[in-house]
Amino acid sequence: MTIKLRNISKRFGQTQALDCVNLEFGYKKIYGLLGNNGAGKSTLLNIITGRYLADSGEALLDDEQMTDNDKALNQIYMLSEKNYYPETMKVKDAIRWGAVFYPNFDKALAYELAERFSLPLKETITALSTGYTSIFKIVMAFSANTPFLLLDEPVLGLDAGHRDMFYKLLLERYSENPCTIVISTHLIAEVANLIEHCVIIKNGRIIKNAPVEELMNVGYTISGPKALVDEYLSGKAVISSSDLGGLKTASLGGAMPNSADVTSGLEVSKLNLQEYFIQLTANEREER
């Protein structure tokens, strides 16, 4: 089972939100959909779920068109930044209706997760704080039990404790009920160890689409005393660097060196996904 996007383009006025996107999300894998604000992440997910119509191209579930196809769309649940529930609807009523729209919706799990996150069931959804609105959406998403789960900025407004609970829940649910999970987020450092496959979008175009392990093999990180790091960097392809007091960390392109080839006092590690992303998207504003 695979979601396929073929030559998808979408424009809003003068803004080209998506430009001839070709992409596949395979089954039972955790994807990271990464991009700066306005890169096209939410537009892409909204086209998959039929909330937006593409100007051109097609969205398929396997080889079946998803547009106006309830059978196909019922295989996908999207956690969106927007609230589509009626203003007067309470949390407990939304859980009840979830079972109507999604055949495999697990009400018992929804109540269990609501208790775990201290989500007030009798509160109206629109009266929830920003953080608890995100918690409500998380509860609904993981209870839907669909083969594809699209999470658009799922930890918006959550404090550090609740974000940690969310990431543990994601791994727990994926282990118990494997499905395809697409996490669209700008908190790259927090999801770097969760995602298996990375899709980076910039100016409406996919610029990287590869397993995380493969991307991290294009470079490495060196850290240690500033003077030693600066000496090591001479003549090398530096991706990025940062100083903190007398210490310095730098990311470089190329194969990771053997420890015997690195000056004593320096530490070598795998390339940081966030640093790699920053380098790829550094000139996004200038290119618009």
Topology:
Elements: E1 3-12, E2 15-25, E3 30-34, H1 41-48, E4 56-61, E5 64-65, H2 70-73, E6 76-79, H3 91-101, H4 107-116, H5 130-144, E7 148-152, H6 160-176, E8 180-185, H7 188-191, E9 197-202, E10 205-211, H8 212-216, E11 219-225, H9 226-233, E12 238-244, E13 247-253, E14 267-270, H10 273-281, H11 284-287
Parallel strand pairs: 3-8, 3-9, 6-7, 7-8
Antiparallel strand pairs: 1-2, 1-4, 4-5, 9-10, 11-13, 11-14, 12-13
Helix pairs in contact: 4-5
Notable characteristics:
alpha/beta, 33% helix, 11 helices, 4-stranded antiparallel β-sheet, 14 strands, disordered C terminus, 30% strand, 288 residues, globular, 6-stranded mixed β-sheet
Explain this structure to me?
With 288 residues, the chain is of the alpha/beta class. Helix content is 33%, strand content 30%. The strands form three sheets. The protein has a six-stranded mixed sheet, sandwiched between helices. Strands 2-1-4-5 form a four-stranded antiparallel sheet, with helices on one face. It is globular. The model is unreliable at 283-288 (pLDDT under 50).
